[in-house]
Amino acid sequence: MDRSEEVALAASYTEMHEILMPNDTNNLGRALGGSVLHWMDICGAIVGRRFSRRQVVTASMDHVDFRGPIDLGEIVAVEGYVFDTGDTSVDVKVDVFAERPSAGERRETASSFFTFVALDDDESPAPVPALSCETDRERRLRDEALDERRERRRSAPTL
C-alpha cells in the first residue's frame, strides 16, 4: 500500500455499543472514566485498522472532555472515524454517547482525538492511504473534526 491510494472516511466509520454494567461503574453508579477511555481506545484502534488495513498502535490521545455522566444500565455508544492522515499515522475522532431508549434520550458524554500508527509485518511504521472525502457529509465530518481539534489545542492550558 502506498500514499497514492485513497480510502474514504466512511470506510473507517465504527460504532461500538455496551450496556453500562456494575463492574464499570463507580460508587455513584456512573461510568468509570477508565472504562470509557478503554472503550474509546478500542474503537479508535478498530477505526485505524479498517482504514489502513494494518495493525495499529496508539501513539497519542488528546485530552478527553467528559461532558456528562453515563448511568448504570444506560447504553454506551462509542463512535469514531479517521479525519486526517500522516505518512504512517491516522488521526481519529472518537465520541461517546449515553442512550436511554425507554426515554428516547441520547446525549454526548465524552470526546477526544487519537493518533494511531500503522505497522507492517515487522512491527515498524508503515504507510497509510490518503483520506478521501467523497460526500458532503464526509467533508463536513472531516472539517468539523479538524476545526474542533485546532480549537481545543489553541485553548488548552499550557504548563
TrEMBL record:
Tell me which Pfam families the record gives: 4HBT
| CDD domains per record | BFIT_BACH (cd03442)
The HotDog ACOT-type domain sits at 10-122
Matches recorded under SUPFAM superfamilies: Thioesterase/thiol ester dehydrase-isomerase
Chain segments carrying region Disordered: 122-159
Any idea of its EC number?
3.1.2.20
Q: Which InterPro entries match?
A: Cytosol_ACT, HOTDOG_ACOT, HotDog_dom_sf, Thioestr_dom
| Class of this enzyme | hydrolase
Keyword Hydrolase appears in the UniProt entry: yes
Q: Where is the composition biased (Basic and acidic residues)?
A: 134-150
**What's a single GO MF annotation on this record?**
fatty acyl-CoA hydrolase activity
- Report whether Secreted shows up as a keyword of the record: no
For this UniProt record, give its keywords in alphabetical order, as a comma-separated list. Hydrolase
For this protein, the record's PANTHER family field holds: ACYL COENZYME A THIOESTER HYDROLASE, CYTOSOLIC ACYL COENZYME A THIOESTER HYDROLASE
- Report what the protein is called: Acyl-CoA thioesterase
The upper taxonomy is: Archaea, Methanobacteriati, Methanobacteriota, Stenosarchaea group, Halobacteria
